[in-house]
Automatic annotation (TrEMBL), chains A, B, C, D:
Residues in ThuA-like domain copies: 9-224
The protein's name in its UniProt record: Trehalose utilization protein
Source superkingdom: Bacteria
Pfam family, one: ThuA
Length: 248, 248, 248, 248
């Protein structure tokens, strides 16, 4: 059976502030998280572009959004700097069918909070802890090519309660050394689009060079890129010519 | 086994514009939809108050919100007139544990759209059509005391695609004469709160005098009023005294 | 973006009794439902084999099962004639990763009831009724290439309550002329496998020549064929060398 | 708002072999797990009876089953000794509306496997490990009166992958010292009944004296005891007097 690759057009959006301001982070991601991801995903047959917060319109022009099948999002310290008009456009694109992969601290991104409708709050701790992301749905295509768990020697802890709607499909649950658990791979269907939240990726750890993490992101892109059904029509529907009592 | 009644403190919020402006509607609900519901729910042991759009702060003062266990919401032609600050407060109360029952055209209410994160769009038609609300989860407490379906001789048709997240629990699916179906009883867990969307209730039909419809609303109030677990703590968690490698 | 085809190895299992015993059915499916489906799916790039009830081991030998990515199942009047040992093997294969598409009256097949754990009972009526299968999740890949609904001029009615677990993903809900609704496209993750129940296909109607019905079955095959994660290990796990208090 | 108590008629079924054969276990549960649970649940207003494996018909006579609102089940080393006819009766009762709470090693009970349709396999280890059961749905009534997590100083580890269907409602996720996670509080709607799987309770630890564990079981009993809608009718439905084209 052939391996499916979607050839999706992917835009990787990154805040790109830490990498330019914090020497520790610059060392880990000298070209920025967006370019590390772009390189890490190079072998998957996607058409990858990048966009960052400080570009005009955050790089998310109408043209870019219209030609993006899946948007990958990393943000952390400047969620408030994202323009509300752009958030609105991204939101509409997702409901129209664009996939969205939200990474790590993107749980507090305006676009993720808008789509989830909850606070998206969680517990956190930076203590170089080991994380194990256990696969809880081995049938799910987002888990393809992954073993029973992914082990990351050092990550920032995120712990429950994670204030999100129950995922339509829960794929990963994480274990942290310090005693916490976290629903770390969460898939949602929203409108004609698909959203996947994936936890790992604190900026000071080389997480986005991990081949399992990259595999999951690639799987998520393929999952989110899959075409669904026709765009529904909404609004007033005329009286049908049949089937209404007394009006046939 | 004893029947459970929650004695919940209920606030019924109603737009209350149609009943005062449209003689057809005034005839059906002379005291307003909110008072019809209040009377209809009188036998269920709730503590019921009402609030309407044109009251100061839409009747949803901090005091009212803090002392409301379940908020019932009916709105249609003036969703935009609902103050964003009030919407924000209601949203916070839901995440803190207040139940929310959204009726009929409330699918376009700001609070419902905010909680759902989708457009909440649908198809509609006013043609005095028969509606059958089929119970698809006979195990669910919101269906208590209801038969296999509720039949309403005349209602406004709402049809799929209904742009909402897949309900955590789908309780009713409606059939309409004209050929449409609609997920008409949809339950969600959001934060510490619970939300139930219930479709029937076009203002020109006496739907809120129907004892089965009232039973479902009462069941939904009891379901949404049920207490859950402790309020989670969010934010930074200190390094635990044990279990971190090299720090014991 | 490229259209994904899985090249899956598909086995179409058919009871094949009606077509040989009932002239009305023979007329609709002269080569049997299995061959009509095989022809109808010919353009989708699958490797298709067939198997029927009255073949030795119902055509589901260990060799066939081991080399099947997705099994499609149609049965109606002879569910009891299916050997329990074969059912057991099919069940194991699904939990190991084989996809399963169950059609129409297959809701009472031993394998479907075993996987669902419920009675799988429903209401039915043969009255040449029109059926509309509405897409309720336009984001779902099983709805790819389909419009807002599929209309079948004549089908056997199946109505709620359909005693199944709530689908992990509900894709279609049907409307019938006579007043019933039915959850007609239901997707489940079970073990490492995926199951899709699809309602249409009464033996006396030419349903399996309908291009939309065939498209959904093909979509479902691709969905069910997708590889997931590694096969989990179960059972006793030795004490880890670290992280157990007092044993490091 | 009044606290809801269902006054449910509860039958606690226990294998009751370990307590009589293993001195370590006898010490922890001298009267048997069933009586420890009965005492522990004494303040919740239930009508509690017990039944054990070695009683005639395992204590689950037709009379007992008909008058049981919620059945609690603990079994471990003798699942095979449970009579298939009794399993069938329990299964039917659940589909008719009896609640079922399955504890700990009951994951391999015939009745649980039958209802789930999967292998229900998992990983395990006996190493006196600490367990933390985190609440992942603080809105759920099964979490009522519980803090952010329940900590058990010593329990037997159960780890993912736990081969069950995705719970309709996931309430608890456990953390274990040794590196594993486990979906430890799983709620399902099946037919007219409700099933809750709750992990803790290895026979050699005093888990069933823990007041939080007892609180969860009591909450689960109330949740599972709640009445739903009318018993659906299944089977052939006559042609309706209206709404069929050409037959009005």
């Amino acid at each position: 059976m052939t391996e499916s690759t979607s050839g999706a057009r992917v835009t990787i959006w990154n805040e790109y502030r830490h990498e330019r301001n914090n020497p520790i982070v610059t060392k880990v991601y000298p070209e920025g998280i967006h370019n590390a991801l772009k390189e890490g995903l190079a072998s998957y047959g996607f058409e990858i572009g990048t966009a960052t917060l400080d570009e005009p319109q955050h790089g998310l022009t109408d043209e870019v959004l219209e030609s993006t099948d899946v948007l990958v999002w990393w943000g952390h310290m400047a969620h408030d700097d994202v323009d509300d008009t752009i958030v609105e456009k991204v939101h509409n694109r997702v409901l129209q069918g664009m996939g969205l992969i939200v990474l790590h601290s993107g749980h507090y991104a305006k676009i993720f909070k808008k789509l989830m409708g909850t606070s998206c709050a969680l517990k956190w701790r930076e203590a170089d802890e080991k994380e194990r992301l256990w696969v809880v749905n081995p049938s799910h295509p987002i888990a393809a090519g992954i073993g029973e768990y992914i082990e990351l020697p050092q990550e920032e802890m995120y712990g429950e309660h994670f204030d999100i709607p129950a995922p339509d499909e829960l794929v990963f649950v994480s274990w942290f050394e310090g005693g916490e658990v976290f629903r770390s791979g969460c898939a949602y269907y929203r409108g004609q689009g698909k959203v996947f939240y994936f936890r790992p990726g604190h900026e000071s750890y080389p997480t986005y060079y991990n081949k399992d993490v990259l595999r999951v992101i690639a799987n998520a892109v393929n999952w989110a890129a899959a075409t669904g059904g026709a765009t529904p029509a909404y609004g007033h529907v005329p009286v049908p010519l049949e089937r209404i009592r007394g009006r046939e």
